[in-house]
Amino acid sequence: GKSSLARELKEASNLVDRVVHIEYDDVAREIQLQGTTCNAFNSDSLGAWRLSRNIALHRLDQELGRHFFQEDNTPASRLLIIMDDNFHLRSMRKNVYQICQSHANANLYFCILWLDTPLQVCLDRNRQRPQKSRVPDETILKMALEAPDPVKASWEQGWVHFTNNWSTISIEQIMENSQVVHPPPPPVDPEILEAERRKTRESLLHKYDGYMRR
């Protein structure tokens, strides 16, 4: 249902000037047709799968760059980019957020839509797909969702949880639950980092020595 939702949002978006829909499955199909890395794209082709994800992230970066850094330095007023994928691993979502962080000097917001669909519904929908677009049942069964958790990852503060019925989702609701994207923290000076580690080691040795002298 995620791609259907993305298309509905794209068509019903009257609060934004432009909507960009980046669908990971479409990118994978493009690779298959072009034969960029292999004759056929499938779940066993790890290299092609990784390439499709990198291309999707690159397109996100390009769209943000075009939007915020036009020649006249006047970005379009409102842009919505929908990254369409299952994103079942937190690391996958983090990749998207990190791209956004590289443009965080602009007015940029980030939101995760969690469509909580029962496993059996997912399997049934997958079986109704055309043969070429179908995913093996084993692949779906092996997927373990890392649900958004602001405690474990502070950058996941902005998210919306919906059950199988997502017909009530609106752009307004997404905007209300979005979080401001903050710039990445400044890199740590390697010398300072090593000095702190040395202090920690010396402190531990001192404590151990004191313990042994008791």
Query: What is the count of β-strands?
Result: 6
Indicate the structural class: mainly alpha
List low-pLDDT spans.
36-41
Please tell me what the overall shape is: globular
The count of helical stretches stands at 8
Query: What is the share of helical residues?
Result: 40-55%
Order of strands, widest sheet = 1-2
Mean pLDDT across all amino acids:
76
Q: Using only CA atoms, what is the Rg?
A: 22 Å
Quaternary organisation of the protein chains: single chain
Q: Could you characterize the architecture of this molecule?
A:
By secondary structure, the protein is mainly α. It is 47% helix and 11% strand. A two-stranded parallel ribbon has the order 1-2. Strands 3-6 form a two-stranded antiparallel sheet. Strands 4-5 form a two-stranded parallel sheet. The longest helix has 23 residues, at 46-68. The termini are far apart.
Short recap of the structure:
By secondary structure, the protein is mostly helical.
Topology overview:
Layout (H helix, E strand, L loop, with lengths): L1 H10 L6 E6 H11 L11 H23 L10 E6 L5 H12 L7 E2 L1 E4 L3 H9 L9 H6 L16 E4 L8 H6 L2 E2 L9 H23 L2
Parallel strand pairs: 1-2, 4-5
Antiparallel strand pairs: 3-6
What keyword list fits this structure?
two-stranded antiparallel sheet, globular, mainly alpha, 214 residues, 47% helix
